[in-house]
Design a protein that fits this description.
Protein name: Glycosyltransferase
Keywords: Glycosyltransferase, Transferase
Strand content: 15-25%
Structural class: alpha/beta
Largest sheet: 7 strands, parallel
Shape: globular
Organism: Chromohalobacter sarecensis
Number of strands: 24
GO molecular function: glycosyltransferase activity
Distance between the termini: 32 Å
Domain Spore protein YkvP/CgeB glycosyl transferase-like: 271-377
Radius of gyration: 31 Å
């Protein structure tokens, strides 16, 4: 085994676009490689298409570029650019395939994704700047996320002392030994630089073009400067022009200014070496930002690059810059007038520009590439080698509807114990038998999601050494497949609730109780989170899914009607597919009659017709819950009713009719047995954040399933 450390760079910048963050990602990859102690893999968000930043990576020894958008990583699906969440997911899978010793992560969304894989997070060096920079801006939930990231990772890399202080405030019991400064990095300084008075009257900007970066304002101010100093020139470098939602024409105006401003030369995107050469011939670099950024604890790499090239720089006066450069730094600017004044001084008064350049150079000397390589060398030496991965249990998942299993699968994969094979059925008893047989040959465990035709088929075809486990929901009691399965071949069936197990064992008499258990559905507290409720939420009832008729939409209407007699502000929001859009429902006369009567009741009532709102289905339920104060479960029966748990996670108060098992699952305090009690909960109930049942937490549910898969 090689003594070199295996390192993965997993950062949210896309190196096909040039800005400070993408240069950061390139630089840390090159610095790690330069230690001579590591083999580096660099995970990209999109296919490398430009060599300005990718060129040095391609030419670097012991560095491999992994195209994260490659179809081979996504079961043949193509993506022009993967999301940060997908990067986190892919990093977990890559680590499981061949473990890394260190994973460098930049970006909160990636880091949050890695919370699902604590073993992976434990080897991560986390660097975050895309976070609120004041403790007061964090919600309780955001603090929990930050605490989990900080306590779970191997190192926290902080750009400044301000970020370090922020982390220590958010996580008071944090081990300070894992908190390291990783300030911006610039190329090693040349041995000699031309003094300011030997340089042309040239100003330079290199980076992104964005509203808060004041790039349009700087370009629009240039004609005035150029008019006063006809020999002056402004170079602007870069091609990443942002859209600004509050300035609809921003991108077009910025592009026009770059192309048509007299005395302004736009060079587009340039390799970093070419940018350095241009800086060596400029008097002043521009790093003026909008006033809203004055409280930042993050500073721009550009001011270091300007200083390292012997340039002066115009930048905001704020506490960070005063700390770095001193209160008397001569080229601070905090308004358009000050910017123009200071730019004129920098171009026309060499002694002022030289004074600023000398201060910046002293700062830059502390941030050179060689200095950073030495630090990383020590950190790598302290990072433990990853243990050799153990053989994984191959789990074959079979079923027609796997939506309840998707997140659970990710959690189980993240343990590093399992590899999943998917046999996607087309219906209760419809599948590609040849594919099922081929997958069966590879499996150690077969997991049937729903006990339908999939369980019947696999129970008659499994090998003696294979373990067959299934999950029973509810509808299985109404079909024949469980009766026709080979019960002797089934190792275990889990039910989502005790009352479902009891009812099923009454129907399938003779199936051994010892082969059963109850494992509830998990509640995804990463997807469903408390958010600020709208003002109308206090008067809004919500229900998710109202088909079939046993969901009892009529009871929800009864409750709404009773509440409207006292207060006209009440309404009912129904989330999900419209009942009459289900093909199976249209074929059942009793279902069709029920819904036609309910809709006629709504549409003919002046009181109800504008108070029942159908919201379309979609993966935006967490946002939908911001409008909902009370989540209803008026059903005749349910096996579990996931929407109740999701509502609890978001701060909605449950109102549950007393269907069999409801009190055991969700607590007696939320149960009603008549309309008056339901109305009373809504009238007097307090909407607040509530704790869901602990046995439905993802980690608890995950551990239960591990015990069923491995015996």
């Amino acid at each position: 085994m090689s003594d070199l450390k295996r390192v993965l760079i997993c950062a949210n910048p896309d190196l096909n676009y040039i800005d400070g963050s993408s240069i950061w990602a390139q630089t840390i990859a090159l610095a790690i490689t330069a230690t001579g102690e590591a083999e580096v893999e660099f995970l990209t968000r999109s296919t490398p298409a430009r060599d300005e930043l990718y060129g040095p990576l391609k030419n670097s020894d012991r560095l491999t570029i992994l195209d994260g958008s490659d179809r081979k990583y996504w079961q043949g699906r193509g993506f022009a650019r993967i999301t940060p969440e997908m990067m986190g997911e892919l990093a977990i899978r890559l680590d499981q395939a061949e473990a890394y010793d260190v994973i460098i992560v930049r970006g909160l969304e990636i880091a949050t994704q890695l919370l699902d894989a604590p073993d992976v997070l434990a080897k991560c060096w986390i660097y975050l700047t895309d976070i609120p920079q004041s403790v007061a801006e964090y919600t309780h939930y955001q603090r929990l996320i930050m605490q989990s990231v900080a306590q779970g990772c191997q190192r926290l890399l902080c750009q400044t002392e301000g970020f370090k202080a922020l982390w220590l405030s958010l996580v008071p019991d944090l081990d300070t030994a894992k908190v390291c400064l990783y300030t911006p990095v610039i190329p090693d300084l040349p041995t000699s630089l031309p003094p300011i008075d030997e340089r042309p009257q040239r100003a330079i900007y290199a980076g992104k073009f964005k509203g808060d970066w004041m790039t349009l304002a700087m370009a629009e101010a240039w004609p005035t400067i150029h008019g006063e100093l006809p020999s002056s020139e402004l170079l602007m470098i870069g091609d990443k022009i942002h859209d600004e939602p509050d300035q609809p024409n921003y991108a077009a105006c910025m592009l026009h200014a770059l192309k048509h401003t007299q005395g302004l030369v736009w060079l587009g995107a340039q390799p970093r070496d070419a940018v350095q050469q241009q800086l060596h011939q400029a008097r002043v670099g521009l790093s003026w930002r909008h006033e809203s950024m004055n409280n930042t604890v993050e500073y721009s790499t550009k001011i270091l690059e300007y200083g390292g090239a012997g340039c002066a720089a115009i930048l905001n006066r704020n506490s960070l810059h005063e700390q770095l450069l001193g209160h008397d730094y001569p080229l601070f600017a905090n308004s358009s007038e000050e910017f123009c004044h200071q730019l004129m001084r920098a171009l026309n008064e060499p002694q002022v520009a030289q004074q600023a350049a000398d201060v910046l150079k002293q700062l830059a000397e502390r941030h050179t590439f060689t200095t950073r390589v030495d630090e990383i060398h020590q950190w790598l030496a302290e990072a433990p080698k990853a243990p050799k991965p153990q053989a994984k249990t191959k789990v074959l998942v079979a079923g027609h509807d796997l939506k309840f299993f998707t997140l659970l699968q990710k959690k189980l994969e993240a343990t590093g114990q399992f590899e999943f094979l998917i046999d996607q059925w087309q219906g209760h008893n419809k599948h590609d038998e040849a594919q099922s047989r081929a997958l069966l040959e590879k499996a150690d465990v077969i997991f049937c999601e729903w006990c339908l035709g999939n369980l019947k088929w696999y129970s008659h075809h499994k090998k003696p050494h294979q373990r067959l486990v299934a999950r029973f929901h509810a509808q299985e009691t109404r079909v024949r497949y469980m009766h026709e399965a080979n019960w002797d071949a089934i190792d275990h069936i889990s039910f989502v609730s005790e009352h479902t197990r009891r009812f099923a064992l009454e129907i399938f008499q003779g199936f051994p109780t010892a082969k059963t258990s109850v494992i509830p559905n998990y509640l995804d507290d990463t997807k469903f989170t408390p958010k600020k409720k709208t003002g109308e939420a206090r008067f809004t009832l919500g229900i998710v899914g109202v088909a079939p008729k046993s969901k009892r939409l009529d009871r929800a209407i009864d409750l709404l009607e009773a509440l409207l007699e006292e207060d006209s502000r009440y309404c009912l929001r129904i989330k999900g597919k419209h009942p009459l859009d289900y093909g199976w429902l249209l074929k059942r006369d009793d279902e069709l009659i029920f819904y036609r009567e309910v809709f006629e009741r709504i549409n003919t009532s002046p009181t109800l017709r504008h108070k029942v709102i159908f919201d379309p289905p979609g993966d935006d339920v967490n946002d939908w819950f911001t409008m909902v104060g009370f989540i209803l479960s008026p059903s005749d029966h349910e096996s579990f009713h996931m929407a109740i748990g999701e509502g609890i996670l978001t701060g909605a108060k449950p109102v549950i009719w007393d269907w069999d098992g409801a009190a055991v699952l969700w607590g007696r305090e939320h149960i009603v047995d008549n309309l008056n009690k339901a109305a009373e909960i809504v009238r007097f109930g307090v909407i607040k954040n509530q704790n869901p049942p602990k046995h439905m937490a993802m980690d608890k549910v995950k551990d239960c399933w591990i015990s069923k898969f491995i015996k």
